[in-house]
Amino acid sequence: xxxxxxxxxxxxxxxxxxxxxxxxxxxxxxxxxxxxxxxxxxxxxxxxxxxxxxxxxxxxxxxxxxxxxxxxxxxxxxxxxxxxxxxxxxxxxxxxxxxxxxxxxxxxxxxxxxxxxxxxxxxxxxxxxxxxxxxxxxxxxxxxxxxxxxxxxxxxxxx
Amino acid sequence: xxxxxxxxxxxxxxxxxxxxxxxxxxxxxxxxxxxxxxxxxxxxxxxxxxxxxxxxxxxxxxxxxxxxxxxxxxxxxxxxxxxxxxxxxxxxxxxxxxxxxxxxxxxxxxxxxxxxxxxxxxxxxxxxxxxxxxxxxxxxxxxxxxxxxxxxxxxxxxxxxxxxxxxxxxxxxxxxxxxxxxxxxxxxxxxxxxxxxxxxxxxxxxxxxxxxxxxxxxxxxxxxxxxxxxx
Lengths: 159, 231
Fold this sequence. Notes:
Chain B: Consists of a catalytic RNA component and at least 4-5 protein subunits. Chain A is α+β, with helices and mostly antiparallel strands and 159 residues long.
């Protein structure tokens, strides 16, 4: 179909979103999109969701760290932010979500706020609470594997 | 802006991990609601760029048990929190001037009314707005909680009762940045500025209690200053 004349085209804002999860979390763009739409629907209903859009564009996630760009209509950034804050689990894996910034174009959004990669990831044993345990060491912190799941720690906890 | 968190072993992340995450999210500090947690506050404050406030959250079955715990913890913690959840506990917390914050007044069977609001104002007890269920629960439970929060705001506004806001995070993944909480507050009809003020209140409370616990403080309005020595 022929595209709309410029003055009728929708105005978008792009939210740069940082994701964090335990190292064994596995989900993709589709899973995150579904959870985000659920969160929006639960928070402000179908009409509000349609008014905010909230399409997940580029998405990358691996080893418990990732980033994505979420599109929202201009003027609805606050609502988009609220829906993102209510995303707490994707595929049953708890996630930490943070809006790093908002831009008017995808390119500016990625250049300004994203792409400062996850860095290296290392698996080794650490001594936590007088016990040697396997852990995943990342730039953001160290996740120690315990009997009942992971424990979030930092280098400071092993000194 | 401060956020109050449940650190390991009460939650799933250590104080250091909470503090580094909170720092990245734009908070000035974290309040550790310690029940079983015993972190080394001195080292943490020295090593981290984010403030760490030592607090105790008292989880009791009834006022008698809570009363003993208040007496035990008050002398050595900066902040003292009492978890509500029953009408008796909510009432106990707001009537004790030694208590700083009443947390989760609506958990379980608890409720809040104008009598408690007046008592809280009189005794300077902050009432907590628990954003946990708003962020993490769904369905009827969440709807009722949002309804409770709106009612609480209406009551507190009328009696000018102090309050704090928290997401009640149990791991660093449950932490949300201040602007996100403000956006959620806006969506709930509580108002963004209001939420921001509730997050700031933790910091003001910590500063005030630290000043009171410092050696130069004698009584409200009376402090030891620097004077010339008499011969």
